[in-house]
TrEMBL record:
Gene giving rise to this polypeptide: dapF
Site description Could be important to modulate the pK values of the two catalytic cysteine residues, residues in chain: 216
Location of the protein in the cell: Cytoplasm
Binding site for substrate: 13, 66, 76-77, 165, 198, 216-217, 226-227
Function in brief: Catalyzes the stereoinversion of LL-2,6-diaminopimelate (L,L-DAP) to meso-diaminopimelate (meso-DAP), a precursor of L-lysine and an essential component of the bacterial peptidoglycan.
Pathway: Amino-acid biosynthesis; L-lysine biosynthesis via DAP pathway; DL-2,6-diaminopimelate from LL-2,6-diaminopimelate: step 1/1
Lineage: Bacteria, Bacillati, Bacillota, Bacilli, Bacillales
Family label: Belongs to the diaminopimelate epimerase family.
InterPro entries: DAP_epimerase_AS, DAP_epimerase_DapF
E.C. designation(s): 5.1.1.7
HAMAP family attached to this UniProt entry: DAP_epimerase (MF_00197)
Protein's name in the database: Diaminopimelate epimerase
Protein's UniProt keywords contain Isomerase: yes
């Protein structure tokens, strides 16, 4: 079966996008297609698959599948790319766009130069801080801030929250020494997280800048994670390293995102979105 795709990235977090405004691909292929198309050796190579589709309640809908075929509920870098796609490709030509995700309707504002989107600002909604909402085992109504998290190798201090998806933030003194490869996957798949978790290792540079490296649930190490960058900022504020209301730059391997936890409790994310290629993929199920 031939699949028409577009590859895009936001701060190096790349996905293959399918346009269901134009094509009628059936949803029963998405999970397997994500696993095959994301493979860098035998597919196109990406961090997963994103579906752009018509929505009854918003300007468009978005679904996100990780590299292992699991479906997630939100994707910050994906939201910015979807906004660019539907604006630049004239599907919805508005500077303010609504995008329906499995974790609610997100509001995106595109910044346009020479008739094309160069940056997108997204209202990512409110973080949920209770254990039951992350979810994480333990007292359901407790917060998880700088909590001891014993592992066979060592004990870590974690701050966990839900921001469209589950995130666990670990502060480190030097980002280069963060145990991303050794412990990222172990934390992400730990049984204390019944839905697994994305994992962010974060170094506080100063009150307005963080360095962050990410292990994404269902994908592994990526160059950037939008929801993860937002979680890093929430974690830094909850631990007293940064302040609510301020713009904080999160420096990821693939680029910078600017995040603000506004006084109305919503998280705002600003960052790039870029086209890579259009093509046809030969999908053998
Ligand atoms: N890269 C994304 C998040 C994608 C989903 C995540 N791996 C999950 O399973 O929750 C982002 O930019 O937010």
């Amino acid at each position: 079966m031939q699949i028409a795709f577009t590859k895009m990235h936001g701060a190096g977090n790349s996905y293959i996008y399918l346009d269901l405004f134009q094509y009628d691909y059936k949803e029963d292929i998405f999970s397997e297609l994500a696993q095959k198309i994301a493979n860098v050796h035998t597919g196109i190579g990406s961090d997963g698959l994103i579906i752009i589709q018509p929505s009854k309640t918003a300007d468009c809908g978005m679904r996100i599948f990780n590299k292992d075929g699991s479906e997630a509920t939100n994707c910050g870098n994906g939201l910015r790319c979807v906004a660019k796609y539907i604006f630049d490709r004239h599907i919805v030509r508005q500077e303010q766009l609504t995008i329906e995700t499995k974790s609610g309707i997100m509001l995106a504002q595109v910044v346009v130069q020479d008739d094309s989107v160069i940056e997108v600002i997204v209202d990512m909604g409110r973080p949920l801080l209770l254990r039951k909402d992350i979810p994480m085992l333990g007292n359901p109504n407790e917060l998880v801030i700088n909590e001891i998290f014993p592992l066979p190798q060592q004990s870590l201090l974690v701050t966990a929250l839900f921001l469209g998806n589950p995130n666990t933030v670990v502060f480190v003194n030097a980002i280069e020494q963060a145990p991303l490869r050794t412990l990222g996957g172990i934390i992400a798949n730990d049984m204390r997280f019944p839905h697994r978790s994305n994992v962010e290792f974060v170094e506080v540079v100063h009150a307005k800048a963080l360095k962050c490296r990410v292990w994404e649930r269902g994908t592994g190490i990526t160059e950037a994670c939008g929801t993860g960058a937002c979680a890093a900022v929430v974690g830094a504020i909850l631990n007293g390293f940064c302040q609510k209301g301020e713009e904080i730059v999160v420096q990821l391997s693939g680029g910078d995102l600017v995040i603000r936890w506004a006084d109305n409790d919503h998280i705002w994310m600003r960052g790039p979105a870029e086209f890579i290629a259009d093509g046809i993929y030969e999908f053998l199920s």
